[in-house]
Amino acid sequence: MKRVRSRIVFDVTKKYGDMLQQVLEWLDEELAKQRDEKRYYLKDKRTVQMQTLFGEVEVRRNSYLDREEGVYTCLLDASLGFDGAKGVSPSIIGGNRHRISCDGSFVFPSGRSAKKDSRLCGDEP
């Protein structure tokens, strides 16, 4: 039974990771369409590997030259509060989202915990 549970968790995690990649790449394209073209010059596409709750997700996103600041930037990273150089999703290091610990209990940004939810761990009811 544990082997079946592990396989299901693996498959679901992989599927959600793939969906997250697609959503982030779509969001990056939307940001490209709405950007200030006089300020942000589209330079190229860069790949980043993000550590997320669903494992490592590889995202190809646009890189821009910010003509006002004279630096290169990725609008997707800025909109997510993500430092592409570190490769860690804000939800992993805190941010303003809750986390789920390995035992299935919730940990809020304040540090307050909620009780374990057995459905998150695959425990029998």
From TrEMBL:
Domain of life of the organism encoding this protein: Bacteria
InterPro entries per UniProt: UPF0236
Family: Belongs to the UPF0236 family.
Protein name: UPF0236 family protein
Organism: Anoxybacillus gonensis
Origin organism lineage: Bacteria, Bacillati, Bacillota, Bacilli, Bacillales
